[in-house]
Structure formats: structure tokens, C-alpha cells
């Protein structure tokens, strides 16, 4: 924007400073009249050419507007004077010797438009000097405004620059007017469509002084060519370098340009997918596409895309699966948009007539046929198809194809026109659902319906009951008899005859009686069935084909319960532990005669026994009760019968004393008790040694008796509990004697009605803890590795004592009887004390025995020095420790007798200092068990140090020394060989060569030629070569010989 302003400013300045050039200048008073223009309100410069080089020095310059002087300039007179209206606005610019002078007028006014004269006076008058110049000044004014209007009728609406008009509709009439005011000269206003000038109408209006308003109007019919068009209003006058431009853009809606329907060229096959496309182009706004199947609209989706010209292309797809219903039908595609709707125009339309090839559509006629057996069946097969030429139809019954050869019995025939099926002499087997199938080149069509062929025939019936019998008389039920059709058509019975045995009960319906008229004849109700209804029933049914055959007999079974029961039992006297038999009987067993008996003890049913008799054995306390029985079959249960049984109990011990009764001699409380069951009740007496015990005052005993009630949990009848108690305060010393007071005590009862009394005797003994313990051996000697003798432990006690053996220090017993039996080879470590423990319920005592394990000596020899002499000490362990020692030298028969000292389990042998030979000394020890294994000691005496070494150590030392010598020899050989080879060349030097022996860099060969007696170190390192002379001696042989 800034660049554009600078460009306009520069152009304006150039326009004001320089006169407008034309093809030819006008003349004013015979002088060229230069045209010049300027913008009102701005500054203008009027140029006056000065040529001092040609015309001489300048005297003065005068400017005139018309005939009025407006400025005087004289450099010589030093005058610069504006005059009149220009006093404050005009200024002349001139630089000496310049070629032009400029009159600058500020704040140019409209009235300043006139012809201006510049008059130049030179000091000298010369020919061809231009002293008068004329300029015609035209004042210019830029237009104040540019306004666009849209004219509708007589009304104008103002438009904003750079905006859009519309939406307009194709074929609309549009009239635009553009007006520019306040310009001088009056502005020229023109309309353009892009770069093309439009056919507009221009008019102007002047307001004086050349100032006015210019107008231009244009009228157009909007069309497709105006899509996105910009209508420009361009304003020009001499004050404008660049035209003023305003514009509006047309928003035009147009009709669709074209419609195209594609997708199917020839025909389609039923079942295939069909895609139709309807395309509409060049619409604004986008077109709406509607599909029609005939006159019925089909809902679809459309897709519109905008094009470069602002219009829309719209597509819609119709996808469907072709069927016969579309064959011959037309599918239409219609397109319209807002323009067409506003104009009430018919939509654009394209039609497509479909040909759909489809398999035959088949129908069978008639839908149903009802006939009796032996009559004729006629069926017809009609079809519609495209193409219409088809193969002969195929017939099916219940989906099975009919082949005439398979139906010879019914004489099937297919008519000559290939559309009918005839079956003569029909039977029940011809009944079914008939269909037909027709095939053309597209496919196979099966009849959409079927013919239901019904063949009537007489019924075959079966009689059933509900509920299913048997039934019980006690239920007082109703039974319904059903005469059911097993086969027959129709299956509905019109009448039924009912029979009881061979007797006709009833034929239903029986309209002679209103009760039996209008009923379902296939049902017969038997009410309140009892035993009288029991028997065989049958029926005969009739349908439209006639009466059928009589059904097989069906038995109606009626159950009823047995007669009243009678209960008896034997024997009449029932005793506990014995047996009793109860018998239940009935006179009428009822129906069915399978009887089951129900027994009860008290109110509880005893379900284990179901026969007519119940044996109870043994009789118990539970047997003393009420018993009842009844007979039961599937028809019900009879009346019951009840008896009461009383049970007697013979005297019997419930609890007896123990066969043995013991009491500690010093107990304070001692008693014996017994309990006797007896019904009726009995009494208990106590005897001591078969004599009744005196229970008088100061007696040694007293008795307590308790009567106890029956206990059904233990099956005990009533009983007597009796306890005999020792009165210890009456006994001597208030304790029992261990010998005298061991007696027999008897509990005895009296007899009763059921049987004799009972008695029981117990032995009573005085008890005490173990005492007087003994062992069979206090010490058991056993040789190591042998089995020791058994040891028996005894004790006095009552009750008899129990025994356990422990090894002293162990907690767990090793034996649990009174015999210590160590039946294994005894090691010495198992020797020691073994403890016997005797115990009973009153206390415990212990006694010990010792196992002494004997073994022969085991020895060992150690070596020491005492007083400069070598001493061998033989030490043994042994049991017994009474040991004898014997010393020997190995591999010699001699037994040593001298220099031996015995000290208990040790023996010392002192050796002489003169012993120098290596010897092995043997020590033997002997006790009562046997001789020990010899123990050895090697003694070397006074010998070389190597003799003191062990054999293995000596061998190692010899091997090391031998190895060292071999390595040294190998190293020496290697050194000698290397040195000889290295000095071989130096041993034979050139005889003519001489060397200064003082030359330290000389070789060993030089030293051989000139030996230096003082250089001994050198000669000592030389190798020795056989029988050579010493290096410092003269040699008689000048040759060198190498010996390797």
C-alpha cells in the first residue's frame, strides 16, 4: 500500500511540474501557449525558460495572470514581490545563470485557472531571444467519492465496495448505477466486466466552474457467464493518474447444465447387484437428485463437489438386487435445484427401462383337493418367467419327485400340455403336499404354494384312558375314555360306539337325549369310579368315509384296599432275651392282591417288616409297648389292629465286680459293687467266703443299695445297685494284712417271677509296691565280640511287677521285661552299668548289674633318649590289665631278656650305644584273653645321615641329584658347541695381516698372531683345542686345526 502511495505521489508531482505535451501547441498572440494543470489546494510551479548565455544578463522577470501582474522579480534591483491575491501564495525561484525560473503558487484555487504570461527583460536586446512565454493553467479537482447503487424499480440501494451481490438467479435483470461527485473536470464513469467494457449509459451534471458529477448505469440479464464475475466501476478525470475503481462480485445461481443416467446397457439377471449412477453437472447451488421407481421415490444419498467456476457436480448411486419385480419397469432420475424451483420449472429427468431375466415363478392350482379313495386327482402348474421358454415341469409330493413308474398303482399321467398332473384311482398313499418345479436358462423356480391333497378313508381307532389305569376306589376319581384315531382321514370322528365287554354302552352323539347331543363323540366319562367299573372297554369310530373297525379291548383297572386287620402274638408270657411273634391277618385281600403289612411300635412305623408276621428276638425293653398292624395294597390301607405287650426280666447282672479286686494295704476307702436287673424287683445280699456278711453294729463292712429306673438307651429294665464298703476304722491298725485279708466276696440276688436269682464271686487281694529286688548276676564278664550271659531281675509285688532295662545314662528303655538279653557281639564301648526297674500301679524300685567287656592287649612303641641311651617304650590298653610283655628283634628267633623294665601297662627296652646296624624291634603283650598283635619300631643306630632317611626320601634325593648332573652336562655341551662355531673363522687369520696388539677393537684372531702375556683374561676364555701350545708360546705349526 505504501509503495502504491509513493508511486501516485511521484506521478502527481511530475504532472504538476511539467506542461502537458500534445501533438501541436496552441498559439496565443502569435506565441506558443503551453498547457499546464494543477490540483486545487496543492502547490504548482509555472516554468519560465531563461537563456542568459544567449540573451545576456537578466534584468527582471514579471508574471501576469491575464492582464494583471502578479509577480515582479529583479536580481539587480533586489526585488521579489508578489502582488494582488498572490501576495501570500506566490514565490519565484531563480538561481543565477540557470536556464529556468519557477513561479511557485501555493494553495491552488479554482479561480487560478487562466492564461499566465512570463515576461523576461535582459540587459541587452538581442534577436531570437524568447522574452514572452504563455502558459494556460487548468485547475483540476479529484473526484470526492465513487458510489455504486443497485436499482430495483425506482429505488436505489447503495452498494459497498468489494462486496458480493446476490444470490442472483440465472435470467434475473440487474441494473447497476455508479456515481462520482466533485471532480474537475467532471469525472468519466464507465462499467467493466473484467477487462471488457460494458454497454453502459453515461451522463454528467455540472455545478459550475467545471465541477460536477458523472454517472453511469448498466442493465444486464444475469446468465451462466456471470458466474463469479466482477463488475467494475472505473472513474477517470485529468486529476487522476490511476482510475478510481470500485467493484462488486456477482453471486449467481444457475440451473443444472446436464443430467446423465448410466449403469445398465442391456439386461440384468435376477439376484445380481445393479449399480445405477445419476450425474448432474453445472448447477449452483448443488442439484438435488431423486430416484423414482415408477412414481414412487427411492431414498438415496448424493455427493456434490464444487468445480473451478463455482458450480457443483452432483452424483447419486442407486444400488439394488435385481428381481423379477423390476422387469419392464422404468427407473427414473430427476434433478432440480433452487433456480428451477424458483422458476417453477420441471426437473431434469432421465429414464431407464430395466429388463430383468429371472427363473420361473411357479404357482400350482388348485390349492387344496379333498376326495375319497378311488377318485381322480387333477393338478395344474402355471408359471411366469423371462425368458419364457422353459423345460417341462417336474412334480413333487412331500418334496419327493414323482416318477410315473413308481406310481403304477395310481396310474399317474402328465397331460400333453405339460402343465397338469392327473392321478386316477387315488389311495391314501397319494395324500400329501404337491409342488411343481419349472426350469429356464436363468434358473429353477419352485411353486410358491402347494396343493394339499387330502384323501379320505375309514378310521382305525384305539381306546385310551385318562388318567391311565389302574385307579383307586378311595380316590373317587373320574375316568375319561378316549377313542383315538390311529389312521383315517379325516381324523375327526363324527360318531363313536362304546362297548363294555361285548355290551354296547352308548353311541354318541345320541340326539334322542339332549344330554348326549352335541358332545365330542371320541370321549366317554366314567364318574366316581369304584370296583364295579373294573373291566374291558372298546370303541368303533365313524368319519366322513364311514364306520371303521372295532378297537382292541382296553382294561380299566380299579384298585381297592384290603378288609380290616387282626393282630395276635405268642407266647403269652414275654421274657427279656426271649422271642415273641406277632401275626397280622385280613379276610379280603382287596385289589390287587399283592398285600404289604404296615407295623407300628407305639406311634412309630417299623418299615423293616412288611410281611404278615413279625418275629422280635431278642425281646428288649422296647418290646414293652403297644403294637399295631394294617394291610396295604395299591388300592389303599385297611383298618389297623392293636395289642399291648408286657415284658418280664429275669435277674441278671448289669454290672458285676471284677473277677479280681485289689486294694492297697493302706487305703482309707475300699469297696466292691454290683448291679442286678430284675422285673419284677428282687433283693441283693453280700457273702464272704460263701458266708453272709454280718452287717451289725461295729461290723467291718456296711452296704448301700439304690433302686434304678429302666434305661431304654442301654436296654436295661429296673435294677438294684448295691455297694459293699470296708469300714477301715474298725480294722486293726486301720489297714489290711497282706496275708490274712485275701478273701472271696460274693454278690447274690433273689429270684422273681421270670426266673431264679444270680450271684458273682470276686477274689479280693491286698496289694503293695515292688520290694526285695534281686538280679541273677551283679557282674557279667564277656570277651569282646562274644554274646554276654542273660541277667534276670526279680521282685516281690502285688499286683505282679513289670520290668524295664536301661543303660545307665539313657532315658529310653532297651528291654521291657525282666531279662536283660544282649544277643549281639558285644563291643568294648557297650560295657558298663545296666539298670533294672520294677514297677506296678503302686510304685517302682531299681537295681543294677555291670557288663565287664574283656579284650586282649593292643600296643604301640615310642622312642626316646635317656642318659644318652636309646629307650623304646611299649604301651598297651587291655582288660584285664594284668599283662605280660615280650621283646624280640624282627627276623630273629632271639627273645630279649636284658634291659627290660615293666611298669603296669608299659614296658621299657634300653638299647646299647654300640648298636650301629638297622633293626626292627617287636613288642608283644599278653593277658588272660590272649596275645596282642606285634607292634614294631625301626631303629637305625649310629649310621651316616643318609641311612637315617626313609627309603622314599632317599630315592627322591638321589633322583634330584642325578637330574641336576644331567642338566649341567647338557648345558656345558651346548656352550662348547656354540663357542666353537662362533670362533671358527677367527682361529685362521690372514698371515700377511698385522695388527697392533694395543688395538682394543681387534678380533681374537689378532690376539693369536701377537699374543700379549699380560692379557690373561682373554686367553682364559679361549676354547682348548687338543694338544695346542699355549697362546703365549711360539708354535711350530702355523696351521690351525679345529677339533669338534
TrEMBL record:
Among the GO biological process terms of this entry, one is:
cell-cell adhesion
For this UniProt entry, what is the primary localization, expressed as one broad class? membrane
Residue ranges of domain Ig-like in the record = 41-121, 143-237, 256-337, 360-454, 459-555, 562-644, 651-765, 770-852, 857-940
Show the PROSITE patterns listed in the entry. IG_LIKE (PS50835)
Q: Supply the alphabetized keyword list.
A: Disulfide bond, Glycoprotein, Immunoglobulin domain, Membrane, Signal, Transmembrane, Transmembrane helix
The membrane spanning regions, by residue number, are: 954-979
Family matches, as InterPro entries: CD80_C2-set (IPR013162), Cell_adhesion_signaling (IPR051275), Ig-like_dom (IPR007110), Ig-like_dom_sf (IPR036179), Ig-like_fold (IPR013783), Ig_I-set (IPR013098), Ig_sub (IPR003599), Ig_sub2 (IPR003598)
Lipid bilayer topology? Single-pass type I membrane protein
Q: Does the keyword Transmembrane helix apply?
A: yes
Q: Which residue spans adopt a coiled-coil conformation according to this UniProt entry?
A: none
**Which N-terminal stretch is annotated as signal sequence?**
1-24
Mind telling me which SMART domains this protein's record contains? IG (SM00409), IGc2 (SM00408)
Q: Region Disordered: which residues?
A: 988-1011
**Where is this chain's protein located in or outside the cell?**
Membrane
An annotated GO cellular component: plasma membrane
One MF term in the entry's GO annotations: cell adhesion molecule binding
Domain of life, per UniProt, equals Eukaryota
Q: Which PANTHER family match?
A: IRREGULAR CHIASM C-ROUGHEST PROTEIN-RELATED, NEPHRIN
Name-wise, this protein is: Ig-like domain-containing protein
Amino acid at each position: 500500500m505504501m509503495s502504491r502511495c509513493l508511486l501516485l505521489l511521484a506521478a502527481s508531482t511530475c504532472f504538476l511540474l511539467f506542461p502537458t505535451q500534445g501533438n501541436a501547441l496552441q498559439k496565443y498572440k502569435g506565441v506558443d501557449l503551453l498547457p499546464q494543470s494543477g490540483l486545487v489546494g496543492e502547490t504548482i510551479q509555472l516554468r519560465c525558460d531563461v537563456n542568459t548565455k544567449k540573451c545576456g544578463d537578466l534584468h527582471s522577470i514579471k508574471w501576469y495572470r491575464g492582464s494583471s501582474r502578479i509577480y515582479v522579480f529583479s536580481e539587480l534591483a533586489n526585488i521579489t514581490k508578489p502582488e494582488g491575491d498572490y501576495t501570500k501564495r506566490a514565490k519565484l525561484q531563480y538561481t543565477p545563470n540557470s536556464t529556468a525560473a519557477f513561479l511557485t503558487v501555493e494553495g491552488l484555487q479554482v479561480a487560478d485557472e487562466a492564461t499566465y504570461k512570463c515576461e523576461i527583460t535582459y540587459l541587452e536586446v538581442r534577436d531570437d531571444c524568447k522574452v514572452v512565454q504563455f502558459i494556460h493553467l487548468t485547475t483540476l479537482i479529484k473526484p470526492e467519492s465513487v458510489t455504486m447503487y443497485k436499482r430495483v424499480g425506482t429505488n436505489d440501494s447503495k452498494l459497498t465496495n468489494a462486496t458480493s451481490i446476490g444470490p442472483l438467479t440465472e435470467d434475473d435483470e440487474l441494473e447497476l448505477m455508479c456515481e462520482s461527485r466533485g471532480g474537475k473536470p467532471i469525472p468519466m464513469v464507465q462499467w467493466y466486466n473484467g477487462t471488457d467494457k460494458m454497454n453502459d449509459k453515461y451522463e454528467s451534471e455540472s455545478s459550475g466552474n467545471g465541477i460536477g458529477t458523472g454517472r453511469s448505469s448498466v442493465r444486464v440479464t444475469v446468465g451462466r457467464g456471470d458466474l463469479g464475475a466482477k463488475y467494475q466501476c472505473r472513474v477517470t478525470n485529468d486529476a487522476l493518474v490511476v482510475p478510481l475503481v470500485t467493484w462488486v462480485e456477482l453471486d449467481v445461481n444457475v440451473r443444472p447444465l446436464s443430467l446423465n443416467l448410466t449403469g445398465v446397457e442391456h439386461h440384468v439377471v435376477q439376484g445380481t447387484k445393479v449399480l445405477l449412477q445419476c450425474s448432474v453437472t453445472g448447477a449452483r447451488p448443488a442439484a438435488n437428485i431423486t430416484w423414482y421407481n415408477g412414481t414412487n421415490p427411492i431414498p438415496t444419498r448424493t455427493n456434490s463437489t464444487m468445480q473451478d467456476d463455482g458450480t457443483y457436480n452432483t452424483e447419486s448411486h442407486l444400488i439394488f438386487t435385481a428381481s423379477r419385480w423390476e422387469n419392464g419397469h422404468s427407473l427414473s432420475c430427476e434433478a432440480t435445484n433452487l433456480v428451477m424451483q424458483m422458476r417453477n420449472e420441471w426437473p431434469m429427468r432421465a429414464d431407464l427401462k430395466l429388463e430383468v431375466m429371472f427363473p420361473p415363478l411357479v404357482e400350482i392350482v388348485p390349492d387344496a383337493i379333498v376326495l375319497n379313495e378311488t377318485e381322480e386327482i387333477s393338478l395344474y402348474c402355471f408359471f411366469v418367467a423371462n425368458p419364457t421358454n422353459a423345460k417341462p415341469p417336474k412334480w413333487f409330493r412331500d418334496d419327493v419327485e414323482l416318477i410315473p413308474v413308481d406310481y403304477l398303482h395310481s396310474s399317474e399321467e402328465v397331460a400333453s400340455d405339460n402343465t397338469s398332473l392327473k392321478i386316477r384311482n387315488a389311495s391314501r398313499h397319494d395324500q400329501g403336499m404337491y409342488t411343481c418345479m419349472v426350469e429356464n436358462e436363468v434358473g429353477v423356480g419352485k411353486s410358491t404354494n402347494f396343493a394339499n391333497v387330502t384323501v379320505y378313508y375309514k378310521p382305525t381307532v384305539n381306546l385310551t384312558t385318562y388318567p391311565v389305569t389302574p385307579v383307586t376306589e378311595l380316590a373317587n376319581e373320574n375316568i375319561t375314555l378316549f377313542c383315538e384315531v390311529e389312521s383315517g382321514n379325516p381324523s375327526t370322528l363324527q360318531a363313536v360306539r362304546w362297548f363294555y365287554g361285548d355290551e354296547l354302552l352308548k353311541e354318541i352323539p345320541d340326539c334322542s337325549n339332549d344330554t348326549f347331543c352335541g358332545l365330542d363323540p371320541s370321549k366317554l366319562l366314567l364318574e366316581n369310579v369304584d370296583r364295579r367299573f373294573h373291566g374291558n372297554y372298546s370303541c368303533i369310530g365313524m368319519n366322513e368315509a364311514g364306520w371303521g373297525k372295532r378297537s382292541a379291548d382296553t382294561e380299566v383297572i380299579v384298585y381297592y384296599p384290603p378288609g380290616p386287620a387282626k393282630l395276635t402274638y405268642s407266647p403269652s408270657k414275654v421274657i427279656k432275651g426271649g422271642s415273641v411273634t406277632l401275626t397280622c391277618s385280613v379276610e379280603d385281600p382287596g385289589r390287587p392282591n399283592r398285600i404289604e403289612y404296615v407295623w407300628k411300635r407305639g406311634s412309630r412305623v417299623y418299615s423293616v417288616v412288611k410281611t404278615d408276621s413279625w418275629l422280635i428276638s431278642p425281646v428288649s425293653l422296647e418290646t414293652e409297648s403297644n403294637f399295631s398292624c394294617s394291610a396295604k395294597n395299591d388300592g389303599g390301607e385297611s383298618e389297623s389292629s392293636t395289642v399291648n405287650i408286657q415284658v418280664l426280666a429275669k435277674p441278671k447282672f448289669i454290672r458285676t465286680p471284677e473277677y479280681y479286686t485289689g486294694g492297697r494295704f493302706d487305703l482309707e476307702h475300699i469297696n466292691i459293687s454290683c448291679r442286678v436287673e430284675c422285673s419284677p424287683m428282687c433283693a441283693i445280699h453280700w457273702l464272704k467266703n460263701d458266708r453272709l456278711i454280718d452287717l451289725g453294729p461295729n461290723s467291718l463292712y456296711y452296704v448301700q443299695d439304690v433302686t434304678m429306673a429302666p434305661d431304654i438307651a442301654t436296654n436295661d429294665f429296673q435294677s438294684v445297685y448295691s455297694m459293699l464298703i470296708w469300714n477301715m476304722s474298725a480294722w486293726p491298725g486301720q489297714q489290711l494284712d497282706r496275708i490274712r485279708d485275701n478273701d472271696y466276696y460274693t454278690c447274690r440276688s433273689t429270684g422273681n417271677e421270670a426266673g431264679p436269682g444270680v450271684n458273682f464271686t470276686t477274689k479280693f487281694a491286698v496289694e503293695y509296691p515292688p520290694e526285695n529286688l534281686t538280679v541273677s548276676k551283679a557282674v557279667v564278664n564277656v570277651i569282646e565280640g562274644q554274646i554276654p550271659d542273660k541277667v534276670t531281675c526279680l521282685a516281690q509285688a502285688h499286683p505282679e511287677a513289670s520290668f524295664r532295662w536301661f543303660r545307665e545314662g539313657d532315658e529310653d528303655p532297651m528291654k521291657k521285661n525282666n531279662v536283660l538279653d544282649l544277643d549281639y557281639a558285644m563291643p568294648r564301648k557297650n560295657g558298663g552299668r545296666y539298670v533294672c526297674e520294677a514297677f506296678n500301679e503302686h510304685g517302682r524300685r531299681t537295681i543294677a548289674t555291670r557288663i565287664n567287656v574283656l579284650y586282649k592287649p593292643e600296643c604301640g612303641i615310642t622312642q626316646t633318649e635317656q642318659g644318652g641311651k636309646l629307650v623304646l617304650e611299649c604301651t598297651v590298653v587291655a582288660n584285664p590289665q594284668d599283662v605280660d610283655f615280650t621283646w624280640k628283634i624282627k627276623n630273629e628267633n632271639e627273645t630279649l631278656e636284658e634291659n627290660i623294665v615293666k611298669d603296669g601297662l608299659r614296658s621299657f627296652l634300653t638299647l646299647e650305644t654300640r648298636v650301629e646296624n638297622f633293626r626292627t624291634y617287636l613288642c608283644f603283650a599278653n593277658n588272660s584273653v590272649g596275645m596282642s598283635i606285634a607292634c614294631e619300631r625301626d631303629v637305625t643306630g649310629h649310621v651316616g645321615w643318609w641311612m637315617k632317611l626313609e627309603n622314599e626320601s632317599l630315592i627322591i634325593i638321589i633322583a634330584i641329584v642325578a637330574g641336576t648332573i644331567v642338566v649341567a652336562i647338557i648345558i656345558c655341551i651346548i656352550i662348547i658347541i656354540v663357542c666353537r662355531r662362533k670362533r671358527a673363522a677367527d682361529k685362521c687369520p690372514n698371515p700377511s695381516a698385522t695388527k697392533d696388539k694395543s688395538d682394543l677393537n681387534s678380533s681374537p684372531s689378532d690376539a693369536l698372531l701377537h699374543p700379549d702375556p699380560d692379557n690373561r683374561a682373554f686367553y682364559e676364555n679361549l676354547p682348548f683345542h687338543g694338544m695346542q701350545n699355549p697362546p703365549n708360546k711360539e708354535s711350530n705349526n702355523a696351521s690351525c686345526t679345529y677339533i669338534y
